[in-house]
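User: I'm putting together notes for a lab meeting next week and I want to include a structural view of one of the chains we've been expressing. I don't have a solved structure, so I'd like a prediction I can at least talk through. The sequence is below, exactly as it appears in our construct file.
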Amino acid sequence: MKKYLKFIARIFFIIVCAIGIYTNIVKTNSDAFMGNGTALNFYTLQSNILVLITEVILLFYSFSDVNKTSKFSRPIAILKYVTTTAITLTFLVFWGMLAPYMELESLFEPSCILVHVITPIFMIIDFLIENDKEMLKMRDVGYTLIPPVYYLVYCLVRAEISDTTLTGGSRYPYWFIDVDIYGWFGNENGIGIIYWVILMVFIVLGIGFGLMFSKKKLKRNNV
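Assistant: Thanks for the context. Below is the predicted structure for the 223-residue chain, given as structure tokens.
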């Protein structure tokens, strides 16, 4: 019975996640954050898509013969761990660094809440309650850097090869990686991008260690 309740919950989560992604992709307001068909260029949408893919994999994994094979158990656990860290970064960066500069009307749109609140919270809960605590090792925290490093490279390459501008007419999706304005090492406009990159590395590792510690603590408490 418990297995089927988890199955239904995962189906519901997948649907909610897909709706959040879709409603942001179809935004046509050029003044809106991630609007005018540019949403796929933002870390928010890419991390939500990663969540969707991971949850679909977990759905099939839980009901297949593969889940009885130990050689697949650890990669699946790492994938879920990396995905949870990535979407937690979305949650923290949005509400800590982006939301203060947004209008309330845009901030509390259902499409915004779905990808910046609902999906991150659901994913964190799913990660913490899943019974795969023994599969993760402390060294796995290094894997959590893969999504943000990939995304930084993506943004830098996209800025050079694409003519499409994003929010505010910038070539970059977020102000703290806008090399055109701040440069790599800073200028009269503010501190350089390299310092934000270093900060993000520490934030991601902090999230990774925090999630792993919380999971182990729940295990000790027999949750």
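A couple of points you could mention at the meeting. The chain has one domain: 2-220. The mean pLDDT is 87.

User: Perfect, that's what I needed.
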